[in-house]
Amino acid sequence: MDLRQMRYFVAVAECRSISVAARLVHVAQPALTRQMQALEDELGTSLFDRTTRGVNLTDAGKQLLSDATRILADTSAAMERVTRAGRGEIGHLSIALPVRQTLTSEIGEILRSFRQEVPGVSITLRHLLSEAQLKLLSAGQLDAGFLLFRDPADPAFSGIPVCTQKILLAYPSDWQWERGKPQSLRDLNGVDFIWIERNAAPNWHDELIHCFFNAGFVPKISALGVDAGSMLTLVSAGMGCTVVPETARNHAPKTVAFMELSDLNVVHKWEFVWRVDNCSSVLQRLVNVVSGFAPVPPDTASH
Fold first, then answer.
1. Which residues form a coiled coil (predicted)?
2. How far apart are CA 4 and CA 26, in angstroms?
3. Is the predicted pLDDT of residue 125 greater than 60, yes or no?
């Protein structure tokens, strides 16, 4: 018994007439009669009581109608799910976001747009630094991530620019600057500075060290943090100043103030990154959404 025979049987059972059912399923009446006889022979029982006015279901026929109706409905639903999965409309994604203190509004808008477009996709979100995201992406334990630092020449990954962030100086709002407010990093020499250990964020640490060296600034380390949130807490406690991404001000206590410095020229360039060999249709839908938010290069926007 195959699905086609089930559909024919259900049509006959519901119409209570082989001739009417034949017109409904677009099959010649003799052919449909042979199909029903073959089905009864295969099952070894009568499914119909045949009369001059049509057919009635036997007890076996009633049971088959119940089962066949359910099977056909399940089959139709399965086909619909397969089709939707192929279009990336259902499924699951594991995505990593930056640490909470530096979450950008652009990333929130991307995820909101994706949710509106494909509400049937479930998402697991994790907050991880760039280095951790790349490790999990390589291991296949993560579908995609919003991150800062990666080797653009690595052929294993592909990425789409999302947004950029400036880096700001954060300091206690009640500080009295003995030499006046700083204009550059060099002006911070001798000032208590809150730093981050390299193993907490190696790329971020090294990028800042390079910037500090070029500016002639040697931090006088007064305390250590592990992320932007802990560093802002230490700033709020008056233990020193530090540098953080500009979005960190959205989560900062009122006792922390911010300013730009002329030579603090580090810029965070956020990317949406995934493995090129990930063939997930759901991931491709998200890639398409992110592409719609990608910043337009200045030379392109001018045309």
1. none
2. 12
3. yes
**What confidence tier does 88 reach under pLDDT thresholds 50, 70, 90?**
low
Tally of structural domains, the chain: 3
Helix (H, G, I), strand (E, B) or coil at 132: helix
Report whether 110 contacts 162 (CB < 8 A). Answer: yes
Q: How confident is the model at residue 160 (pLDDT cuts 50, 70, 90)?
A: very high
d(CA 35, CA 159): 56
The helix or strand, by DSSP H or E, that contains position 72, with its residue range, turns out to be helix 59-86
- Token digits of residue 89: 């409309």
Are residues 137 and 153 located together in one domain of the fold? yes
Q: Which two tokens stand for residue 123?
A: 């998402």
How far apart are alpha carbons 227 and 208 in whole angstroms?
A: 14
With cut-offs at 50, 70 and 90, classify the pLDDT of residue 245: confident
Among 41, 59, 86, identify where a domain stops.
86
Instruction: Tell me the residue range of the domain where 237 lies.
Output: 164-267
Q: Please say which residue of 86, 110, 141 terminates a domain.
A: 86
Would you state the structure tokens that stand for residue 47, as one six-digit string?
């499914």
For residue 7, the domain's CATH number is 1.10.10.10
| Residues, the chain | 303
The answer to whether residues 40 and 79 belong to one domain is yes
Are both 178 and 225 inside the same structural domain? yes
